[in-house]
Structures are given as C-alpha cells and as structure tokens.
Design a protein that fits this description.
alpha+beta; seven-stranded antiparallel β-sheet; 9 helices; 25% strand; globular
Length: 396
C-alpha cells in the first residue's frame, strides 16, 4: 500500500483567540515583562555576528554584545569556527576588546591566563597557587554557533530550529544572490534608538504604512509592494517601476542600475526584504544586501546593528548605484525613526491597551502569535500586578 505522506504533516496550529488584536502597549514599556521576554525570546534566538569571509585566517575573531553578554567567534588553527563567552574563567575579565581582531592566543589582560583558539585553558601564571584548578575544566564557556549561506550566527541558549530550517521556505529565492561569495562593504554600525526592540521589527514588517509614510518607496514601487509570512520569516518585496522618479537619487538608481548577470530576469529590479524571527533582517537588492538586527537594551531603548555586503564588482556605475541606494535608504530610515519613536511614546499612554490588526497585516499577526505562545501573559490587555513573573502563567 502506498504511504500517505500527508498524514505525516504536523497538525495545523490551533486558532489564536487574540489573532485580531495587536500586542498590548504595556509589553513595550514594562521592566518585568522585558526581563521575561529577554529570557524566553532573545536568549534562545539566533543572532548574526559576521560573514565567514570576515574570519579568513586562524586567530581572526569577531564579537557581538547583547543582553549584558559579550561573545567572541574565533577561527581556529584547524580552520573551524567556534564561539565562546568573552569572559576569563579566573576573575571574569573580558579577554578581547572591540569588534574585531586577530590573535595567536587569547591572553587575559588582568592576570595573563591564556586560552588557545579552541577555547582550552593552556597557561596560568603561578599555577601551583590554585589547589582546586584543573586546566581541562576551565576552558572558555562555549556558545552555540550556526552558519547559513556564508553568515555566522550564535545563540545563548538552545531554542529550536537552525537558521537554514527557518529560512527554508525562501532558500530557493535567495540562492541566486550568492551570499557565500559576498564581502563586507562597511564595518558594523551601531545606532541607539529610544524605542522598544519590538517596535523596530513591527515597523519593518508593516505593509500599510508604506504608501502613507514613505513617498520615496511609493515612487519606486508603485503598487507592487507585497508581504507574506512563514513560521519563522516574513517576506516583503517591491518591483522598481519604469516611471522616472522626481527625486534625483531615486531617478539615478532607476536609470543606472546595471545588469547583474547571475540573477534571474525577474530579480534585476526587485527589492526583497526578509525578517528572521525575532529581530534580524536582510534587505536584498541586485547591487548589494544590507543586514540589520535590533537588539534590546532596556524596555524603552534598543540598538540597531547594521552591516552591508556585496559581491566584488569594480564597475564605476555599480559603485555609484550603491551610493544612490544608501542615499535612498537613509531617507527611509529617517522616516521610520520618526515613526517608531512616536509609536513608542504612544505605547506609554494610559489610553492605549491594544489595537485591531487588519487581515492583510499577516506579518504582525505572525509575530504577535509567536510572542503569545512563548509568554502567555502577553495576551493580557493591561499589565498584571507586579511580581507576576515569579508565578508563571497564573495571570494569563
């Protein structure tokens, strides 16, 4: 008898009773909720660190800092990539400073404890002075690491699928862009914003504000802007229209964007946006890709961590088009910053509890559902009494 593969499919998720409502405003300002969200959402989630090409040689390292942790990714002598907490096992001193560097060994600047590129503790001054010390038990604390299409990710705790599994629904769309062959155009940029981290992501996946708040994108895309949501990734897209824009940088981009031979015809003038759960995004253009993640700092502040990558291309017109791209998106970013800062202020108003979500706002619905699944108290329209997190789920 032929096997019925359909029977092996996972069951459809139960209907979300709150599907037609946004996340409540108190989730964007409350300190107790913020601590729970960092533990249940951010710590178990992947965070991008760099591209593999940023670590070409043994000893090369890159760091990322979030949730009070400093993590370092190292290229070992054996060519493998490993990730560790940037914390000496002796007195918790940070071993390296800055975003990047290269070292044959990691030597603590406090007491000179020394670690190999594989994280093993290899040297301790006055070793006999530590009766309880066993070198083999005091290597650097490892961090889970993942690689996807040339990019390197870490996460503080085990939290579900790999990056490849998350991106699987769109992997065939991304493959032609040759992420693995890309190189960094600019180093990490950090920009603090007076907003809860979720407000950045909500805005990124919000389709309804495009024709209202982004005149430039509307000129470029016309009515082609579209969104859709998969379990762990949102997709947004727009095709450049042929009608010349009145804005000089937009018109330059439209007119001079060169052909990229390895891309399908349909992608030559396509702008793609993918948001990975819960706080990362790739902006993909024919000329380059921009990466952004929004890392929480406090309940009402976050930091945007950004990098730009592209395939090597020495054509002068490509360099000019990339500059035009930057000028266009600098305006878009300024518009979005103005919007989300005012939304954040509104979230603090006692007049606001929840707002309705339209049927077309599929990305906001998907994000809110995942938050509620991980933190049932997020269903409450108003903040529960202080101390609720000590008694999980009783308030929901």
């Amino acid at each position: 008898m032929a096997q019925r593969f359909a029977d092996l499919s996972p069951p459809a998720p139960a209907p979300d009773p709150d599907a037609d409502w946004s996340l409540p405003g108190w989730l964007y300002t409350d300190a107790e909720y913020f601590a729970v969200e960092c533990d249940r959402v951010i710590r178990p989630s992947w965070q991008i660190v760099c591209h593999e090409s940023d670590l070409p040689n043994p000893g090369d390292w890159r760091t990322i800092e979030y949730l009070g942790e400093s993590l370092v990714v190292l290229r070992g002598d054996d060519g493998a990539l490993r990730a560790f907490h940037n914390v000496c096992r002796h007195r918790a001193m940070r071993l390296v400073e800055g975003n990047a560097g290269c070292a044959r060994k990691l030597v603590c600047p406090y007491h000179a404890w020394t670690y190999g590129l594989d994280g093993r503790l290899s040297g301790v001054p006055m070793k006999r002075d530590y009766p309880a010390l066993r070198l083999e038990d005091n290597g650097l604390a490892p961090v889970e690491i993942d690689r996807w299409r040339g990019f390197v990710f870490v996460r503080l705790e085990d939290g579900g699928p790999s990056v490849a599994d998350m991106m699987a629904p769109y992997d065939h769309e991304i493959a032609p862009y040759r992420f693995e062959d890309m190189r960094r155009l600019s180093d990490v940029r950090l920009r603090e914003r007076a907003v809860n981290w979720k407000n950045v992501g909500d805005n990124y996946s919000d389709n309804l504000h495009i024709p209202v708040a982004h005149e430039g994108l509307t000129r470029l895309f016309g009515k082609s802007y579209a969104i859709e949501a998969e379990p762990f990734v949102d997709k947004m897209s727009g095709q450049l229209v042929d009608r010349p824009s009145a804005d000089p940088w937009e018109r330059f981009y439209q007119t001079h964007l060169p052909r990229v031979d390895h891309l399908p015809e349909a992608n030559q003038r396509l702008w793609l946006y993918y948001k990975l759960w819960p706080n990362m995004a790739f902006d993909i253009y024919a000329d380059q890709i921009d990466f952004m993640q929004w890392l929480p700092l406090t309940p009402t502040t976050s930091v945007l961590r950004e990098m730009t990558f592209a395939l090597p291309d020495d054509r002068r017109v490509m360099k000019l088009v990339r500059y035009a791209n930057w000028r266009i998106n600098r305006t878009v970013n300024a518009e979005d910053t103005w919007l989300i800062e005012r939304v954040q202020q509104g979230m603090a108003s006692r007049s606001y509890a929840v707002g309705p979500i339209g049927a077309s706002e599929v990305c906001l619905r998907s994000f809110a559902r995942k938050i509620r699944e991980r933190i049932p108290e997020a269903r409450l329209h108003h903040a529960p009494a202080a101390g609720w997190s000590r008694y999980p789920h009783r308030s929901a």
